[in-house]
Amino acid sequence: MEQRLANTWRMTVNEKKFIESALLSGLRVDGRNVYDYRKLSINFGKEDGSAEVHLGQTRVMGFVTSQLVQPYRDRPNEGSLSIFTEFSPMADPSFEPGRPGEFAVELGRVIDRGLRESRAVDTESLCILAGKLVWAIRIDIHILDNGGNLVDAANVAALAALLTFRRPECSLGGENGQEVIVHPPEAREPLPLIIHHLPIAVTFAFFSDESTLVVDPTHQEEAVMAGRMTATLNTNGDICAIQKAGGEGVPQSVIMHCLRIAATKAADITVKIRDTVEAYNTERALRKIKRHSAPVALDVSGTGPNVRKNQVKSQDQRKVSGSVGSQVDKLKPSNERNDSDQSNDIEGKMVTKSFEQGGTNSKDGKPRSFIGGPSS
Amino acid sequence: MEIDRADGRSPNQLRPLSCSRGVLNRAHGSASWAQGNTQVLAAVYGPKAGTKKNEDPEKASVEVIWKPKTGQIGKQEKEFEMVLKRTLQSICILTIHPNTTTSVIVQVVHDDGALLPCAINASCAALVDAGIPLKHLAVAICCCLAESGLVMLDPTKLEEEKMKAFVYMVLPNSILSVLPEESSSVKGEQMDHGLITSVTHGVMSVDDYLHCLERGRAATSKMSDFLRRNLQPRLSSDSSMAG
C-alpha cells in the first residue's frame, strides 16, 4: 500500500488556489481562453487503421483490426464493433497495470455509446454470409500520456483510425456460393468502412464557483474541478450522448449553454479530422500508383490530351522513374484540383479512368478493381 | 552465395535507426526507438518506494510492463517482459537505491521484425532519459540464419518467419575509457566482448551461433556510436521535468 501512496501525485494547496482564483477572472494557467481547445494534431501510422492524436500534452493511439466471426443470434446480418481501452501505466503514475479502473471503463463506455449506439459505423455492410460470417471490428485505444481530457482525445483517435481503416475484400464462391474467399490486399484493394457521421466528444469542467466552466481541461484543472460533463454530438445537430456522472450540480441554463458551445467545437474538430484523413488518403493513393509502375500502353496516352487540359503546375519534387512519371504528375494535379472543386465530375471520371487502365496494365497482368482516392 | 533481401539491403546492413528522447510529458523518462518499420515506445517511472513481495528489498528492483499493439497479454508478452527485466537488471546499478521499484513500460507501435531488440534499445534510452544510474549502456541486435547458412542482420518480419533460426543478443556498449587499457579487461578478456543476453529461436549449430555472435558484435559498434551520439546532453533550451 505504501507503493500506491508513493504513486499518486498530489496537487499542492497553493496550485489549487491559484488555478481557482485565476479562473474567477477568466484566466487559465496555460493562457487559453475559457472555451478554447488545445492544439489538436492527428498522425497516421504505417498501416491502415492506426492513428495517433496529440491534444496539447495528451497523447492517445488508436488501432483498428478486423476479424471474421459468427454473428450474434439476435442480429444475424450485422457485424459488430467493440472498443477496448488500455490505460497504459506510462500515461500517469497512478494508472495501475491489470484490471481497468472505473475511469477507464467509463471512458470506454462513453466512446462506445457515441460510436456504436448512435450507429455511426454501418454494421450491416459488415455482413458477408447472413447468420454465418460477419466482420467484427475491434478498436484498441492506448492512452500514452495523460495531459487531461482523455475522453475527447481518445474519441478523435478512434474516429481517425476508423476512417483510415481498410478491411479485406471478400467474395462468395464454392459450389453453392457458401464459401467465403478473403482476398489479400495485394490481389484486391481493401475497402474502407462505411461511416455515416462523426460523433465528437466535447468535455466541460465545472468548478465550485457556479458560473465557472472550462472546455478541454488539462490534468491540473481536472484535479481541481468539482464536476465534469461530456457531450458527444455530430455536425448534423444530433446529440449522440451526454455523460455527467455526479459531481457538482449545475443549473439547466448552464447545460444548454454548454451544448451550444459543444456544437461549434464539434464542427471545428470534424473539419480538422476530415482534412487530415483526406490528406492521408490522397497520399496513400499516390503511394499505390508509384508501386505499380508499369509501362503505359498507347490507349492510356490517348486520354493524355484531355487530362493535360486540366493540368495545374505541379511543384512536387518527387522522383518517379519510367514512363509512369508523366502519368503520376498528371494525376497528382488533378487530385489537388478535385479536392478543392467537388462539383467538377469530369475530372473525377478522367482520373478514375486512367487509374483503371493503369491497373489493368500492371506487371502481374491480373485485373484489379482499383478505387481511386479522390472520387470517393 | 548472395540472397536478395526484399528491401535491397546487404546481409550485414542494418535498417535505418531513429531515436527520440523525452517524448512523453508525465513519464520521468521516455524514448521512442525505430528500426526501419519496427517502432517501440518506452517510458520509465522511478524510483518509486517499496518493492514487490518476491523481490529482494536490499536492492532496487526493475518492473517491466509490456503492452502489445492489440489483443490480450499472452505468454509471449510475459516472456518478453521477463527477458527485458533480467537484461535491465544487469545494467542498472541496483545497490544505489535499495527498496525501490523502477517501472519500465514498453508499448509496441509497429512490429516488423526484431521487436525485442528494438524494445531493449528503447528501454535503455528511456532509462538514460529518466536519469536512472546505469553501469553501462546496452545495444541489442537480431541476427538470423537462413537455410543456406547465410547469416543476416536485423531481419524484417517476413524474413524472420522464413529463416531457419534467429538469435536476439544484447551486448554492452563499447566503452570509451580514459583509463589505460588493462583496467577494461575482466579476467584477461575484453569487457566489450561480453554478452548480456541471448535468446534463440529455431535450430542452429554451435559454429553458426558463434558466427552470429561475431557478426552481431561487429554491427553493434555502429549502433553504440549512434546511441552515444543520441544520448548526448541536449541544449539548455529544453524545459524542465518539474510537475
UniProtKB/TrEMBL annotation, chain A:
Q: Which regions are flagged for Basic and acidic residues bias?
A: 329-350
The keyword Hydrolase is assigned to this record: no
Q: Which residues form the Exoribonuclease phosphorolytic domain?
A: 37-168, 197-263
Q: Which InterPro entries match?
A: ExoRNase_PH_dom1, ExoRNase_PH_dom2, ExoRNase_PH_dom2_sf, Exosome_comp_Rrp42_subfam, PNPase/RNase_PH_dom_sf, Ribosomal_Su5_D2-typ_SF, Rrp45
Q: Which Gene3D superfamilies match?
A: GHMP Kinase, N-terminal domain (3.30.230.70)
Give compartment(s).
Cytoplasm; Nucleus
Q: Which GO terms describe its cellular component?
A: cytoplasmic exosome (RNase complex); nuclear exosome (RNase complex)
Listed PANTHER family: EXOSOME COMPLEX COMPONENT RRP45, EXOSOME COMPLEX EXONUCLEASE RIBOSOMAL RNA PROCESSING PROTEIN
Stated family: Belongs to the RNase PH family.
Q: What is this protein called?
A: Protein ECERIFERUM 7
Automatic annotation (TrEMBL), chain B:
Q: Which residues cross the membrane?
A: none
Against InterPro entries, the record matches this protein to: ExoRNase_PH_dom1, ExoRNase_PH_dom2_sf, PNPase/RNase_PH_dom_sf, Ribosomal_Su5_D2-typ_SF, RNase_PH
Keywords carried by this UniProt record? Exonuclease, Exosome, Hydrolase, Nuclease, Nucleus, RNA-binding, rRNA processing
Q: What Gene3D superfamilies would the database entry show?
A: GHMP Kinase, N-terminal domain (3.30.230.70)
Q: Name one Pfam family in it.
A: RNase_PH
Q: Name one GO molecular function term.
A: exonuclease activity
Task: Please state where this protein is localized.
Answer: Nucleus, Nucleolus
Q: Which residues form the Exoribonuclease phosphorolytic domain?
A: 13-133
Specify the domain of life of the species encoding this protein: Eukaryota
One GO term of the biological process aspect: U4 snRNA 3'-end processing
List the GO terms this entry assigns under cellular component, sorted alphabetically: cytoplasmic exosome (RNase complex); nuclear exosome (RNase complex); nucleolus
Q: Which family does it belong to?
A: Belongs to the RNase PH family.
Q: What is this protein called?
A: Exosome complex exonuclease RRP46 homolog
